[in-house]
Amino acid sequence: MNIKKIKKFNGKTDIANSIIVGDCFVEMKKIKDEIFDMVFADPPYNMQLQNELYRPNKTKVDAVDDAWDQFDSFDAYDKFTKKWLMEVKRLMKKNATIWVIGSYHNIFRVGNIMQDLGFWILNDVHWIKSNPMPNFKGVRFTNATETLIWAVKDKKVKNYTFNYEEMKKYNRNKQMRNDWYFGICNGSERLRDNNGQKIHSTQKPLPLLERVILASTKESDLVFDPFAGTCTTAVAAYRHQRKFTMIEKEEFYIDWALKRFNKNFQTPLFKN
Amino acid sequence: MNIKKIKKFNGKTDIANSIIVGDCFVEMKKIKDEIFDMVFADPPYNMQLQNELYRPNKTKVDAVDDAWDQFDSFDAYDKFTKKWLMEVKRLMKKNATIWVIGSYHNIFRVGNIMQDLGFWILNDVHWIKSNPMPNFKGVRFTNATETLIWAVKDKKVKNYTFNYEEMKKYNRNKQMRNDWYFGICNGSERLRDNNGQKIHSTQKPLPLLERVILASTKESDLVFDPFAGTCTTAVAAYRHQRKFTMIEKEEFYIDWALKRFNKNFQTPLFKN
DNA sequence: GTGTAGTTTGAATCCTACG
DNA sequence: GCGTAGGATTCAAACTACA
Question: What's the confidence (pLDDT) of residue B77?
């Protein structure tokens, strides 16, 4: 196992199987054009980007201000989204694909901007949770889904990777649909500190990332994640002989991510 | 049964249980503020189809190539969307809710604009089809879903109608989730002419509309649909003792819609 | 009437290599 | 870039034909 944590990335180090510590905008600028085969991004969902809402240790930085100007908030989120998507697009190989996950709070902003930037959507995929949090007040439907957008850089891209037959195998030999059923991340897979506190508030289930990777990459492809968190994307890539480059601002998350590579997860390799 | 087809709407006629012939922008302008309890809208999706598509058995797919689905650009589609949404918002009661259905082609445009206009999203609901069209070429996941956005006029609205207990009844007494399972509209429910040709290329399944109405309206509420087509929304409303106002440009669709009220559909009242 | 086999079809941004 | 030829590609439900 040769996984690098890069604290001061100078733009020259080999970034295969590495986790770069730093702000994604700063670090992405150092990377040369068109080197990634696939991108998975799990950007922040909250609209109050000006103040980061949570610290790694879960303490709330700021209460949500009711007097917040909603329009300004969307505008700030849009600027942020456009900025990282433009930079990611530069780093994608010509026939690379990109996945972005989000909820109804942000996915319409993200999808709209992706289309504006020329990305061509291949599918919207719906992660349907077997065990979502109920709506405690009974005033809405249980929010049991998250949405992934799968896209290529532009309309003309034809030869992107889609492992059609591989996907069929995981769906009783019928072609895989865009509704995916996975439980939320908990149990032995969920990273927790000695006090039982979750390390990351939105850790994604490994089987979800495995399906993403098995569907849209080949062995030894280089996978990129600009908001890596505890690096579920890297773990999934590593399990399936893909290479990865992760960027994560919080070193706290990265140190936990590194532990994952030395741990034998009890979760099945690819559960449905 | 007292259902009116209004050919020359003068803005004064009682519009309960009526179908107005005309362009939705023109006709909506004649309607006074804040009179509808709920809105359901199935706008054009802006599919942007490129070439003809053939099944593996060489038969041609009957694509949606209607003139009403053609837009020159995202910008043109956005302008159209913003325009009808602004007008609809004016017609909604203060605590009314709105549903908009779409696919990945347009739903990100719609959701983004709704948020920009101040609508506050309550849920995204995913219609998961039991019998979608496959992806014949095997280059993407089967597109087996459509998305509905459910929203109120703005963030502050609290006392909107959500029939929580009624919904529980249809979900084995568990709280209803945002993943809904219905087949596509075909069989005896699908309107066809004497030659077996579809009357409308995108007729929605009645059970979907029934769930929308049972979830978000009370008896005798007034339901509005600006893109009524063959008026599935009206049929669902009528079945459940709600009133309706429909606007539809194509009189051809309306005349078929009127026939529906005299026909005893073989479909169950509310199937899951 | 019943049962079985074969046919049709659905909001679709659906190919690739080569000259 | 474009045009064209070659070749691989589908699932569930409703409907029709026929025994």
Answer: 97
pLDDT in tens, A185-196: 999 999 999 999
**Would you call B145 and A132 a contact, using CB atoms and an 8 Å cutoff?**
no
DSSP one-letter string for A31-68: SPSS-EEEEEE-----S-TTS--B-TT--BSSPPPTT-
How would you label A201-219 residue by residue, b for 16+ Cβ within 10 Å and e otherwise?
ebbbbbbbbbbbbbbbbee
H or E element in which residue B244 lies: strand B243-248
Residues A223-239, mean pLDDT to the nearest whole number: 97
Strand D contact nucleotides, protein CB < 7 Å: 1, 8-15
A233 lies in a domain?
yes
CB contact under 8 A, B121 and A110: no
| Interchain pair B126, A123: CB under 8 A | no
pTM of the model: 0.94
Q: Kindly state whether residue B23 falls inside one of the protein's structural domains.
A: yes
Q: Domain for residue A272, yes or no?
A: no
B158: domain range?
3-266
* Residue A154 Ramachandran class (φ > 0 left, ψ -120 to 50 alpha, else beta): beta
Protein-contacted bases of chain C (C-beta within 7 A): 8-17
Residue B103 confidence (pLDDT) above 70: yes
A112 → closest Cβ in B108, B164, B178: B108
The answer, yes or no, to whether residue A111 has pLDDT greater than 70, is yes
Contact B104, A124 (CB under 8 A): yes
- Alpha-carbon distance of A81 to B51, in angstroms, equals 32
Which of B23, B27, A159, B26 shows the shortest CA–CA distance to B15?
B27
* Crossing angle for the helix pair B206-216 and B232-239, to the nearest 10 degrees: 50
Closest nt by CA–C1' to B137: D9
Does residue B231 fall inside a structural domain?
yes
Of all protein residues, which has its CA closest to the C1' atom of C9?
A: B61
State the DSSP string of B185-222. S-GGGS-B-TTS-BSSTTPPPHHHHHHHHHHH--TTPE
CATH number at A149 reads 3.40.50.150
How many separate domains does chain A show? 1
In the structure, what pLDDT confidence band is assigned to residue A61 with cuts at 50, 70 and 90? Answer: very low
> Are B52 and B63 within 8 A, CB to CB?
yes
CA dist B163 and B180 (Å) reads 16
Residue B1: pLDDT band (50, 70, 90) is low
Q: Which chain B residues touch A if contact means CB-CB below 8 Å?
A: 74, 103-105, 107-112, 114-116, 118, 121-126, 128, 132, 134-135, 138-145, 147, 149-150, 155, 162, 164, 167, 175-179, 215
Nearest chain A Cα distance for residue B17, angstroms = 28
B99 neighbourhood in chain A, CB within 8 Å: none
Chain A residues 87-116 with Cβ under 7 Å of strand C are 115
CB B141 within 8 A of CB A123: yes
Rounded to the nearest angstrom, the minimum Cα separation between B10 and chain A is: 37
Average pLDDT over residues B208-225: 98
